[in-house]
Amino acid sequence: MSQHALTMLDKQFFEPSQLAAERAAQLQTIFEEIHREKSQKFKYRLEFRKSPHIGANAFALPSGQVLMTDEMVGIAVNDTELRGILAHEIAHVEHRHGIRSVVQNAGVFLVISILVGDITSITSLAATLPTLLVEAGYSRQFEKEADRAAGNYLIRKGLGTADYRNILVRATKDQQSVPSLISTHPHTEERVKYLQSLETSE
User: Fold this and answer.
1) Distance of CA 57 to CAs 72, 111, 134, 161, 164, Å?
2) Is the overall model pTM greater than 0.70, yes or no?
3) What are the DSSP E strand ranges found in the chain?
4) Which tens digits make up the pLDDT trace of 60-101?
5) Where are the domains of the chain?
6) Of 45, 52, 84, 132, most Cβ neighbours within 10 A?
């Protein structure tokens, strides 16, 4: 499903990345540092895309592919900010939020399709994953789980959550400048407060 989703995303939203090879390699190193600590159940891969349509954003596909836009890299003040974003997306993969979002959004339709054996409907539903990732986004619960994982990772590394919080605010402002996009990461103020609470509870 992830490869199909990536193909659809490339057709609908993305252009080839224009990120310098050296910069991409630096971020690949950070990405590998983060996912090496995980369960290794997934084949993690970081890819970059340019997307004036979407702006500063990142997405995780169920198999472990993480897409980060050039625009997200462009608004970052330092690598700790992007480390937080990458840790957040890896958490979405680890918690299987992509697949769970499809099921939650499908609701009764999915159940009925399975009961009547309508495989075409189920396949069509799976094909909606790219749109859900870009336009509908994750539930507050899923965002909180991913933020908890990213925040705790940053705190454990002695980096704190301030940089991560800063880029969340900046990315939201960038996304709001793109009229056609429904933000995939809503409720930024709520998320920032939650990340702050992780540090005060330590």
Assistant:
1) 5, 32, 9, 18, 13
2) yes
3) 15-16, 45-50, 58-60, 65-69
4) 888 889 999 999 999 999 999 999 999 999 999 998 766 656
5) 2-100+128-200
6) 84
